[in-house]
């Protein structure tokens, strides 16, 4: 958890534009910044909408400074938290606007995890999810395509013993747009 909050502990939190904490790391960050309690990880898929809404509410002040947060939730998928005007929630995350030019309201884009026939190992799936998402983000893709690339990379990891499977390649970035649920405050 200490790594997740290190920039803020060292007075450099203002320089962070994108972070990808899991729920435990987000809990530590929100506690340090006194934003409120994140809550527990969902136990059923019915718990997810409430958790997404709650996390969006407590992280809204942070979205004044961080361009986007990718919060991973294991088997329940992930959410992208950002500020966006109505109708532009799926816009690419890059380029990052200048400080003070953040427009729109806080929104969450929730991506459910893809179902896989078998899980060989969960080791590395979260890292592959983030790597696929960020690689697609760096190409200037819309958030839905970034989500699809991340989920495709995570699926490859789940189906292999190595944390980063040999089957992971740039072709993953060509994954089709993934449907997400939009949540507003």
UniProtKB/TrEMBL annotation:
Keyword Transferase (UniProt): yes
**Please, which domain of life does this record's source organism belong to?**
Eukaryota
Gene Ontology molecular-function annotations: kinase activity
One Pfam family this chain carries? PfkB
Task: Show the Gene3D superfamilies listed in the entry.
Answer: 3.40.1190.20
- Give the GO terms filed under biological process for this record: phosphate-containing compound metabolic process
Residue ranges annotated for the Carbohydrate kinase PfkB domain, each copy included: 16-158
**Which controlled-vocabulary keywords does the entry list?**
Kinase, Transferase
Q: What is this protein called?
A: Carbohydrate kinase PfkB domain-containing protein
This chain's source organism reads Portunus trituberculatus (Swimming crab)
């Amino acid at each position: 958890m200490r790594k997740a909050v290190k920039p803020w502990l060292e007075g450099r939190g203002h320089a962070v534009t994108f972070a990808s904490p899991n729920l435990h790391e987000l809990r530590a960050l929100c506690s340090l910044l006194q934003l409120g309690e994140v809550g527990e990880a969902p136990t059923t898929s019915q718990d997810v909408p409430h958790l997404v809404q709650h996390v969006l509410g407590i992280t809204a002040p942070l979205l004044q400074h961080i361009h986007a947060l990718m919060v991973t939730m294991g088997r329940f998928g992930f959410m992208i938290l950002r500020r966006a005007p109505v109708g532009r929630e799926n816009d690419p995350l890059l380029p990052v606007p200048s400080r003070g030019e953040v427009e729109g309201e806080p929104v969450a884009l929730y991506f459910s995890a893809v179902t896989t026939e078998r899980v060989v190992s969960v080791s590395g799936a979260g890292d592959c999810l983030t790597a696929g998402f960020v690689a697609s983000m760096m190409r200037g893709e819309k958030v839905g395509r970034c989500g699809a690339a991340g989920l495709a990379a995570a699926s490859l990891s789940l189906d292999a013993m190595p944390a980063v499977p040999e089957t992971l390649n740039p072709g993953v970035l060509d994954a089709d747009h993934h449907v997400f649920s939009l949540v507003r405050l």
